[in-house]
């Protein structure tokens, strides 16, 4: 790797690390709660290394605790991560001509934060696969290290729920959600999804209310976005 290419990689790492300061506590929380729902330390860490999807991992924890099947958990994770299709689509024009062997690891390592950094750089100064790889590497290593740290801390906390830490999961989602409610569409979709999830949790057994709420949110959001586009 020549100097210019190496500099692109480390520039991606450098630009991403400040954002990771906000991600690290979530990784710690996941590592702690993974064990509290019955996952072994190895399973908790392996999930971060192989799945690498923070929101989906957090959602899966209470589902594991209540005995939800792998099919249910997988489908829920798929719905939660559908946004990656849109992120990938916005990057695809910059990646024309790149082989699948190169696209695959870049796609796997892409998270919300690293995508935002990569697309901003691409629009401002041009796309660099090495820059994205550096950004992805910073995100992946941060999530892995913070998960391991959480597993270590969890091993020294005999009953995490007695500390009131069970509130960390919904608090985490609220912290991620609220800053994104910036317009009429996002606020409306959030409120509708909340109502649907509450009603479905009462009317439908199991964890199907999560999937029902996800599908409803996607459908309503799509219809509202189309209506807004038509008006413009």
Give an overview in words.
Helix 1 runs parallel beside helix 3, helix 7 packs antiparallel against helix 8 and helix 10 packs antiparallel against helix 11. The protein has 232 residues and is mainly alpha-helical. The mean pLDDT is 82. The protein is built from 11 helices and no strands. The radius of gyration is 19 Å and the shape is globular. The protein is 77% helix and 0% strand. The N and C termini lie far apart (48 Å). It folds into 2 domains: 164 residues, no CATH class; 52 residues.
- Radius of gyration, rounded? 19 Å
Residue share in helices?
over 70%
Poorly predicted ranges = none
Main structural class = mainly alpha
Average pLDDT, all residues: 82
Q: Indicate the overall shape.
A: globular
Extended strand count = 0
Number of helical regions: 11
Biggest sheet character: none
Q: Can you tell me the number of structural domains? A: 2
Strand content: under 5%
Task: Note the run of SSEs as H and E.
Answer: HHHHHHHHHHH
Spatial separation of the terminal alpha carbons? 48 Å
Topology:
Elements: H1 3-36, H2 41-50, H3 54-65, H4 70-80, H5 83-91, H6 100-108, H7 112-125, H8 129-154, H9 168-177, H10 184-203, H11 208-231
Short description:
This protein is mainly alpha-helical. Helix content is 77%, strand content 0%.
Name the descriptors:
about 230 residues, mainly alpha, 2 domains
């Amino acid at each position: 790797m020549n100097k210019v290419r190496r500099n692109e990689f480390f520039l991606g790492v450098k630009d991403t690390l400040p954002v990771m300061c906000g991600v690290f506590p979530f990784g710690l929380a996941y590592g702690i709660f993974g064990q509290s729902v019955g996952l072994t330390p190895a399973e908790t860490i392996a999930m971060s290394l192989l799945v690498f999807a923070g929101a989906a991992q957090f959602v899966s924890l209470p589902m594991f605790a209540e005995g939800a099947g792998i099919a249910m958990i997988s489908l829920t994770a798929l719905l939660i991560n559908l946004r990656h299709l849109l992120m990938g689509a916005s990057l695809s024009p910059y990646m024309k001509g790149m082989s699948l062997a190169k696209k695959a690891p870049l796609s796997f390592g892409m998270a919300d934060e690293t995508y935002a950094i990569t697309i901003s750089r691409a629009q401002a100064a041009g796309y660099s696969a090495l820059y994205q790889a550096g950004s992805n590497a910073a995100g992946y290593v941060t999530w892995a290290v913070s998960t391991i740290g959480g597993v270590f801390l969890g091993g020294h906390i005999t009953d995490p729920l007695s500390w009131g830490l069970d509130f960390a999961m919904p608090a985490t989602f609220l912290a991620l959600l609220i800053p994104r409610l910036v317009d009429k569409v996002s606020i409306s979709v959030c409120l509708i999804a909340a109502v649907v999830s509450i009603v479905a949790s009462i009317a439908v057994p199991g964890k199907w209310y999560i999937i029902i709420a996800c599908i409803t949110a996607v459908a309503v959001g799509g219809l509202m976005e189309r209506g807004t586009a038509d008006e413009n």
